[in-house]
Amino acid sequence: MKRKIALLLTVVVLCAAFIVAFSVWRNNRATESSDPGKPDETSAATSQSPDNGEADSGRPDNTSEAATQAQENDKNTNQPADTTEPKENNSKPDDENTNYPIDITDSKGRTIKLDNEPERIISIGPDITEIIFALGKGDKLVGRSAFCDYPPETQDITVVGDFYEWNLETIVSLEPDLIFASAMNTEENEKKLMDLGINIIFINQTESFEGVYETIGIIGKVLNAEAESTAVINRMNEDVEKAKEAVKGLDRPSVYYIVGFGEYGDYTATGETFIAKMLDTAGGANIAADITGWIYSLEKLMEQDPDIIIGSDEAVKYFQETSGYKELTAVKEGRIYTIDPDLLDIQGPRLSDGLLELAKILHPGSL
Length: 367
Description:
The chain is α/β, with parallel strands linked by helices. The protein is built from 15 helices and 13 strands.
């Protein structure tokens, strides 16, 4: 009995000792964890010390980055789809730009070197002015001749003179970096312009649509508008082909085009002129096709007595009211028609419009 009691007491003492030892170990462990000098590894892995933030700034916090990305994804998911149309890109591809410097050979055979796109231009020729506007470069024009009256925007541009006489002081005051002028001017006028020390390109009149296309191409290259010049040429060529197709195979009425009239004589588009070629293309038989120059006569006109007469408003009125002319069959029977002479005289982008008008007059209902 005594042995059992002694054994029981021994077990109790050992248990008590074990409990005390375990309590001491747990307290020590808790003390180590709460020591500020030894940060907990878990918290160290997910937070930065303010003192070390600058040194660690290159190492992103993967946890916060993932959270941020998740927030952004959620935000994007909840946002409505962007239906804004992309902005139009008005820049031209490199192959449609003029690569300066360039050398241009004008109608006088002169070579002009241009280092940059001209910014201030004077045009002394209505055909040139119309081409410049058709190419979208009208804002570059700072001066014009008095005959450059189309399009209407030309009215706001300074006049530097007429076709043959110019105010050189006005030209210089406008500070142009390029002048376009007609090659039909006198040598004296050409010298006056060239003595100014300004780049000048002389443009000649032509006798065909192909020649007009070439002129448009040259001006387009000079003004960094080659794509625009190609578009203008293509549109004109389409009109020409349309007119040809419309009158193909139709009978050709005889026609007289009034260039000049009255006390100074009668003038018409004879066989060697561009207008005569347009009359032919439009399906007419020009009664002056076998004559050179521009001079005609009332006697010849009455002898030929054409089926159709075409001219400006003023010319038509004169024919209708003047003895001799008003006895012509076309006048008496109302086959005398008006047309804007600029559509035939000015060798610019509107020439093809003039051709279509001629075809409509010569062959009503064909277009």
